[in-house]
Amino acid sequence: MATTHAVPLMKSEILRAYASKTPGSRALHERAETLLSNGVTHVGRYLLPHPVYVEHAAGSRKWDVDGNEYVDYFGGHGALLLGHNHPAVVEAVSAQVPKGAHYGASHALEVEWAELIHELVPSAERIRFTISGTEATHLGLRVARAFNGKRKIIRFSGHFHGWHDHVCFPPGGAPGIIPGIVEDTLIVPPNDMAQVEELLASRDDIAAVILEPTGATFGQVPTGGEVLRQLRNATARHGVLLIFDEVICGFRCSRGGAQGFYGVKPDLTSLAKVVAGGYPGAALVGRADVLSMLDYRKVEGDIQPPPVLHQGTYNAGPISAAAGIATLKQVRNTDVVEKAKRTAAAIRDGMNAVLRRRGLGWCVYGEFSDFHIYCGNASPEDIYAGRVPWSQLKGGISPRLVHKMRAGFLLHGVDIVGWPGGVVSAVHTGEDVRRTVDAFDATLEMLAAEGEF
Ligand SMILES: Cc1ncc(COP(=O)(O)O)c(C=O)c1O
After folding, report:
1. Which terminus of the chain has a lower count of CB atoms within 10 Å, N or C?
2. 127 and 23 in one domain?
3. What average pLDDT score do residues 192-209 get?
């Protein structure tokens, strides 16, 4: 981990150099700070001394307002499996735009979109569209509680399910969260099956267990197939619903997501990001009997409202549906999922070779179209064997080091996310891999000069 003798953030040469390369971003951020809270619109986009302001993007690259080019590993927060502006997506969206943005009515594209999801995702007997992954997990938990008449949920520390009240606080709660919700949310350390088994055996008020099937943050704290199989068996035995949050790993682990890859079928699944090809769109999918909680009841020639109400002005908007269909056809008909995984493996290998050459004990790991940089002494084997505490893998790196690393990468033409790590698309090239590995090397050089290791 980073040393305490490191150069403070405000005196960092890395941040100074980044600032002088990005004057246009600085000017925009100064304006933004007078209006947007903290000058940003997503906590993950915050960066000192200022975030990068992007002007346009194409394929695996994006360009900031100063004309600097970056290899992009934000990938639309993971949505862009096909990279920026994939021709098939652009064509589908462009064809739809003149036909209308919102019909306030059902339309053929939502049916085709649902058919593709049903074809690809093993557990998707029924589908209901939402706008965001947050809404999909929110709806999933509500439907689960309504279906089995129980109120508590189990989730795992570090697993991210969006920002609605049930899923966005650590054990003990957080400002703004209603105490009753904190009480009804049982938070277990990742992969702690003994504690899950104990809770399931000792309580009869648990509606569902929700998790990221790859492990927290797309595998930053890996889970593995064995835990998923144990969870499937334990929840089935106790009549508790199992929810896979595949918002980020859906259509990335395999064409059928993590459930397709591991061969474990959850009761409900939340999908977002890739499912809508970079446009706003998401879905809750799963067992027909569970999702029937959203259905009108036809009784004795009359009709009654659904037990669970689900509205949403922009659900299955035709432009998002067009982008989603175009993307899922690429997923189904081509090898984009495997290609992105292969490129991510090449990035991890290249970065690990840099670490070895420098004699640094850190590692870069991941299993799918992702890479995670671990800044402590451990190998990927240590991590996959569970020998590194989860709190070290997620959140164990100082914000100062993360800031410097991100700025260092930006300085060398690469935009990583603050895990730190990145999400890889099917259109990242060999040249992107080389550039990324070189940027990592150059960033490490600067971090060493600032006493970060
Ligand atoms: C696993 C997971 N669940 C839920 C969400 C929330 O999705 P959204 O940002 O679309 O609300 C995310 C977003 O990153 C995610 O990665």
Report:
1. N
2. no
3. 98
CATH number at residue 129: 3.40.640.10
Most ligand 1 atoms within 8 A of CB, residue of 134, 163, 217 to mutate: 134
Task: Report the pLDDT value the prediction gives residue 4, as an integer from 0 to 100.
Answer: 61
Residue 18 belongs to some domain of the structure:
yes
301, 361: one domain: no
CA-proximal residue: ligand 1, atom 8 (nearest): 133
Cβ of 132 below 6 Å from ligand 1: yes
For residues 36 and 120, state if they share a domain. Answer: no
* CB atoms closer than 10 angstroms to residue 211: 26
Question: Residue 280 and residue 108: Cα distance in Å, rounded?
Answer: 18
- In this predicted model, which residue has the larger pLDDT, 357 or 395? 357
Domain count, the chain: 2
Query: For residue range 298-317, what is the model confidence (pLDDT) as tens digits?
Result: 888 899 999 999 999 999 99
Same domain, 385 and 296: no
171 within a domain of the structure (yes/no)? yes
Residue of the CA atom closest to atom 9 of ligand 1: 133
Task: Give me the pLDDT at residue 3, please.
Answer: 57
Is residue 137 lining ligand 1, measured as CB closer than 6 Å? yes
Q: Which domain holds residue 243?
A: 102-316
CB 364 within 8 A of CB 212: no
> d(Cα 32, Cα 43) in Å, to the nearest integer?
14
Establish whether residue 162 lines the binding site of ligand 1, counting it when its CB lies within 6 angstroms of any ligand atom: yes
In a domain, 4, yes or no: no
Using pLDDT thresholds of 50, 70 and 90, give the confidence band for residue 345: very high
First to last CA, the chain: 7
Q: What is the dihedral of CA 242, 247, 249, 251, to 10 degrees?
A: 100
CATH of the domain at 444: 3.90.1150.10
Number of Cβ within 10 Å of residue 172's Cβ equals 8
- The residue contributing the CA closest to ligand 1 atom 5 is 162
Of 248, 253, 259, 271, which is best to mutate to test ligand 1, by the most ligand atoms within 8 angstroms of its C-beta?
248
245 lines ligand 1 (CB under 6 A): yes
